[in-house]
Amino acid sequence: MSPYTPPSAYASTSSSSPPLGNPSSLGSTLGRLLSRKRRKYLGIVLFVGALLAVWDVNLRREAGEWDEGGVATGAGGGLGGKLWGDIDLGKLRSGVFGSGRVVVEDEEDAVVPGGGGLSVDHDHHNPTSHSHPVQSINGRHPVKNGLLYVDLSLPAAKHPIYQLIDDAKKEWDAKVAKQSKTLGEAVKEYGKRNKGRKPPKGFDKWWEYVKTHKVTLPDEFDLIMRDLNPFLAYSPSSLRAHVRKMTGWKDTFTVSIRGGKAEAKQILTLASHLFLRSKNYNPEKIGGSNDRVAGQLAHIEAVAKWIPDMDAVFNIHDTPLSFVSAAHKAELAELVEEGEFFDPEEEADRSFSTWGAACPISSPLHTLHPTLGTDPSSLLPNLTALNVPFTPSKLFTDPSTKSFISSLVQNMDLCNHPDIIPLHGTTSGTKPEPQAELMPIFSLSKTGLHSDITVVPMEQWGEKQSGDVKPFKEKGEKKLLWRGRNTGAFYSNSTPWRSFHRSRLAALAMDNIKESIAVLPAPLSQSEDEQKGSLEKATVMTEEGKLNQRLFDIGLAYEPTQCSTEDGTCEEIIKELPARKSLTFEEENEFQYILDVDGNSWSARYKRLLSTGSLILKSTIFPEWWNDRMQPWLHYVPVKVDYGDLYDIMTFFRGDGVHPGEEHLAQMIADSGNAWSLSSWRKDDMTAYMFRLYLEWARLLALDRRSMDFEYKGEP
Hints:
The protein is α/β, with parallel strands linked by helices and 716 residues long. The protein has a domain of 213 residues: Rossmann fold, CATH 3.40.50. Helix content is 33%, strand content 12%. It has 25 helices and 21 strands. The strands form 7 sheets. It has a 5-stranded mixed beta sheet, with helices on both faces. The two termini are 51 Å apart.
């Protein structure tokens, strides 16, 4: 097991580590604004701004909102007031943000709270989402930003999971039906999705591979373009120079293709006994690192002959490296639109230092960072509030807070879901500083706030489950299973470890919790007349410990790891979260329901779990290569990071202990997930992704990018 490496920016500015640089000043920001052809518009903007300011003052004077000394008497006046005046610094320091109501775009008349705002529930000392009064339309629960918000006024027969499963089937069928069937159609679809750009050279060979190996959904590779588009703002020469510099960085390796042959390159140094050893990383300290390198080469051994010469620098660790501000990403996007290149001598905008710095200014998460940027001590109240033993919060006791994930991809957009930040070990209790430049680094995992280039990991992958797969109905254990170590971050008195995703999961599943929580009714528990009543009336309060005994077999396994022995945190973990018996794969496969959650990064066990024939519930914040190629509620069941939906999900499928649940739907999803893993998570499918990624990357590195376009000359 490799040592835990936090997904944070490097502090060193030496040539052997990623550069951090110094935060940009107002002067450097203005310098960027005054450069390039944008400066010709600046005079007009300033002139119009001055006129608007005068007009605003006159209006305020007429309305009595401006005193004779020229001071606005109303709160939040003018442009500056709009951006800053509405922010309650006291609330920000206590961890409350993102409240308010917004119109649901999917359902025009539905109303839900904005952004899934976070609050610290000081009664229970647990972070909770604000309650969300909702209004349905056409008898449907409203959906916003990847979440379905439960409308408790709907009839009890309209359990939200029915809607989620029905919508998932329709969405999947529509996606499958519209996939390209010929090379000409694929070229046309590529142009539609990429602003008219042509595919990269070698696209025809990639298409031939896809069709020969029966790779499904050949149009669904948008994640590649989302990762690579910012690098269009770099000239080929500056991007090449950046890659050359990075090949010497610590804890990296380089996949190099020359003349159709792929190899892993590392800088070697003379070690003891005249042996050569990698200078980039030490495989003895980073367990499995050599296998990680070999796995990436295995992806492309059969297709390297069709990939142009290129170098790709990989992060050897399983945590992300690249974190730049949204302002810088917006600047790069603007340069791409203008057909200009970023000056590598300039420094990226780094005005703020929080997770919100990676988000657009209009997003809920971004609104947190003005306070944190000026007052780092504002993190302390959250640290105190979050790092206390678990008790049920409003997420579990207040039925008006209930929601479910409808789109995992949208839910992993942390800019729109700031409530996730303090609930996951990767983001909780940290205050990252944006880096001075965008790094072309290929990584095994990242969050939506990072800018690493996503690749396909090979860890724990197998074509299919070893041994016989027991059918869902024949599995003897009907509880939800999870076992794992206390990974996810470093556990100490200086970190809010009790709020981390794995420790919270183990804590909420304890059998001795006496408080009662609100649970939606089992779908088959009401008479015909009762089903006409509201979901709110049908919701029942049940003692959490008893629910845990009936529904869950969840707990940490083994001795604590990644924790401080010096301050006693390891001992606290042992006392508060005693380890449960570890299970063999054979014992694990006896469970009908298995939960998969993140560790230090993505979960390497997910593929194997899908192949068990069990229903897999998944909670994650890490986008992966398969996200656009799988369908939640059809191949697996998504679970929120706060776990506020877990009891309702299990009650829906398992029943309430007296009345049955929809076990046949659980079996259908389990079977679909297993079938998908066998048909669409093969070595061929992973190769298709990496093949396409490398074709795009090789074009970005080409000195003449247009010469690396694929020219289609066949029938449309």
